[in-house]
Amino acid sequence: MAASSARDGGLSVQRWTAWALIPGMVRQVAGRLLDTSRRESSLGHYPRTRYHRPMSPPGGALVVGAGPAGLAAAACLRAQGVSFEVLEASERVGNAWFEHYERLHLHTVRDQSHLPFAPMPRSYPRYPSRDQVAAYLAWYAERFDVHPRFGQHATRIEADADAWVVTTRAGDTFRAPSVVVATGLNRVPHTPRWPGLDGCAIPSIHSRDYRTAEPFAGRRVLVVGMGNTGAEIALDLAEHGARPSLSVRGPVNIVRRDTLGRPVQLTSLLLDRLPHRLGDAVGSALQTLTVGDLSRFGIARPHVPPARQLRETGQTPVIDVGTLALVKRGAIAIFPGIERFESERAVFADGRSEAFDQIVLATGYEPAIDRLLPGVRDLLDTRGLPPLAGAGANDGLFFLGFNAYAAGGLLRSIRLDAPRIAASVASRHHGGDEGRGGDR
Ligand SMILES: Cc1cc2nc3c(=O)[nH]c(=O)nc-3n(C[C@H](O)[C@H](O)[C@H](O)COP(=O)(O)OP(=O)(O)OC[C@H]3O[C@@H](n4cnc5c(N)ncnc54)[C@H](O)[C@@H]3O)c2cc1C
After folding, report:
1. Statement to judge: residues 179 and 195 lie in one domain
2. Distance CA 115, CA 130 (A)
3. What distance in Å separates the CA atoms of residue 281 and residue 288, rounded to the nearest whole number?
4. Distance from the alpha carbon of residue 115 to the mean position of ligand 1, in angstroms
5. Domain that holds residue 243
6. Is residue 438 part of a domain?
7. Is 183 in the pocket of ligand 1 (CB under 6 A)?
8. For ligand 1, is residue 104 a contact (CB within 6 Å)?
9. Whole-prediction pTM value?
C-alpha cells in the first residue's frame, strides 16, 4: 500500500536526493552544535544557548498541534533554520499530559522517551509520572523558544494553487508551503454504541474524562476495553476501594513491564534487531514464561506474538503494571464483550448479566485525520494512519506522531522521525520554495 511504503522509506526515496541531503546534513550538524542537551539534573534552569541564527523569512512551515510531536517538529525546524508557526487547539503545550488520569506513568523508560536534543532530567525516575512528563514538555517548549498560537483549532487543511491553507475554528486562515500535522493518534475519543446504552440507567464516561478513582469508591465500575488505559484504570479503581470489572472483547497480548529488572521496551528494541521470525519466537517464549496462560481468568492470548501484532496492526501490547495480580486475586472481575445494556445491567456475550453503577469506556481514540484533510483520504492506510510525508499533489504535507507500528513506543519514534521531517522541510524551503505563501 502506498501509505506504508512511504512510511517505510518513501520519504528518503522521494526527498532525500543527494543534492538535498548534503546541505540538510550540514544544517543538521549545525543544529547539533547548537544543541544544549547535556543532561540536566532538573528542569530548573533554562538553556544557556539561545538560537541567534537568522531564521528564514516568512513562508516557513506550519505545525498543527503542540503535543510532544508538534514540539519535536518545532525544535528540529528551528535547528534547521526554517521559520515556523505552531497552531494549538488548547491553551497550553502538551495539553493531553496535563489531562491524563493521575496514576499514569510512562510505560517506556525515561531515557527512551525524551524529545530531540534534550533528555529528561536525571532526577526523573525510570518511568516518569504524568506530571513529570507534562512539566518536561512545558520546559521543552521554553527551551526551544516554541510559542504556539493557542486556541487555534484547525478544522481544515487544504491545498490552493501555491500553498497549504489551514483554517481554524476561530475563523483564521494560515498559509505555508509546508505543513507538519502533529494532531496525535488520540484526537477523537472512540465511543462504540451498544443496544440499550443510551437509555440505560448506568452513567458512562470515556477514559479521556477519568482522572482519579476517588469518586468511584465502593461503586461497581465496568471498564470496557483492556488496552493499556483500561487495564490501568481498573487497577487504579481496585486500589482505591471501587469494585472494578473489565469487559475484554477478544484475545489480548499482555507483557510484563519489567522482567528481572529489565524493561520490556528495551527487550523489544533488542528483539526488533533480530530477523522477525527469531525475534517473534523469543518474544513469545518470554511472554509464556512471564505471563503464562490466563484463559482460566477469561483472558485469551492471540496467536500473533506481541511484536508482530504491533508491526502489522499498530496495536500495542498491554504492558502490565499490576492489573494481572489483581485479576488473579479476584479483585478485578473479567467479563467478555458486551451484547447490550438493560436498565442498570450489562448483558455479556456469554449470556451473563451484571448490575453496575458506572461505565468507563476505555475504548480508545481515532486520529480522525480524514476529517482535517478530507482531500487526502488515499494517503491513509487501513487504520487511517498517514505516511511521514505526502508526495505528488500532497507534496509539502508531513505527519509526525502517527507511526504506531514501530517498536519502542511512540515518543521514541517521534524523536527519531522529527529530524527527518525537519530536514525534508528544510530541503524544500532552502531549495527555492521560500517566499511561497505567507505566515498568515
Ligand atoms: C494514556 C497514554 C499513555 C501513553 N504512554 C506512553 C508511553 O509510556 N510511552 C510512549 O512512547 N508513548 C505513550 N503514549 C503515546 C504517545 O506518546 C502520547 O500520546 C503522546 O502524547 C503523543 O504525542 P502527540 O504530540 O503525537 O499527540 P498529543 O499528545 O495528543 O498532542 C496533540 C496536540 O495537538 C492538538 N490538536 C489536536 N487536534 C488539533 C487541531 N485540529 N488543531 C490544533 N491543534 C490540535 C492537541 O490539543 C494536542 O495538544 C501514551 C498515550 C496515552 C494516551
Report:
1. no
2. 16
3. 11
4. 13
5. 190-364
6. no
7. yes
8. yes
9. 0.87
Residue 187 Cβ inside 6 Å of ligand 1? The answer reads yes
Orientation angle between helical segments 264-272 and 276-290, nearest 10 degrees: 160
Judging by beta carbons within 10 Å of its beta carbon (0-12, 13-18, 19+), is residue 199 exposed, middle or buried?
exposed
* Probe residue for ligand 1, chosen from 63, 85, 87, 88 as the CB with the greatest number of ligand atoms within 8 Å: 88
| C-alpha 129 to ligand 1 mean position (Å) | 15
Residue whose CA is closest, atom 37 of ligand 1?
A: 183
Please report, in tens digits, the pLDDT of each residue of the chain (440 residues total): 233 333 333 343 333 333 334 444 444 444 444 444 444 445 654 443 344 333 333 568 999 999 999 999 999 999 999 999 999 999 999 999 999 999 999 999 999 999 999 999 999 999 999 999 999 999 999 999 999 999 999 999 999 988 999 999 999 999 999 999 999 999 999 999 999 999 899 999 999 999 999 999 999 999 999 999 999 999 999 999 999 999 999 999 999 999 999 999 999 999 999 999 999 999 999 999 999 999 999 999 999 999 999 999 999 999 999 999 999 999 999 999 999 999 999 999 999 999 999 999 999 999 999 999 987 878 899 888 999 999 988 999 999 999 999 999 999 999 999 999 999 999 988 764 433 322 21
Q: State whether 114 and 202 are in the same domain.
A: no
Cell of 423: 530536514
Using alpha carbons, select from 394, 410, 393 the residue that is nearest to residue 402: 410
Same domain, residue pair 358 and 242: yes
Asked if residue 434 belongs to a domain, the reply is no
Residues 254 and 318 in one domain: yes
Question: How far apart are the C-alpha atoms of 437 and 188, rounded to whole Å?
Answer: 30
Q: Are 377 and 342 in a shared domain? A: no
CA of residue 161 to ligand 1 center, whole Å: 32
Q: How many angstroms separate the alpha carbon of residue 266 from the centre of ligand 1?
A: 22
- 3 state DSSP class of 345: strand
68 vs 55: CA distance, rounded Å: 22
Give the end of a domain, one of 364, 389, 420: 364
Say yes or no: 122 and 224 in one domain.
no
Residue 423 lies in a domain: yes
User: Domain check: are 112 and 204 in the same one?
Assistant: no
Number of domains in the chain: 2
Residue 391 burial (CB count, 10 A): 17
Which of 329, 344, 364 is the endpoint of a domain? 364
Q: Is the CB of 182 under 6 A from ligand 1?
A: yes
Q: How far does residue 183's CA lie from ligand 1's centre (Å)? A: 7
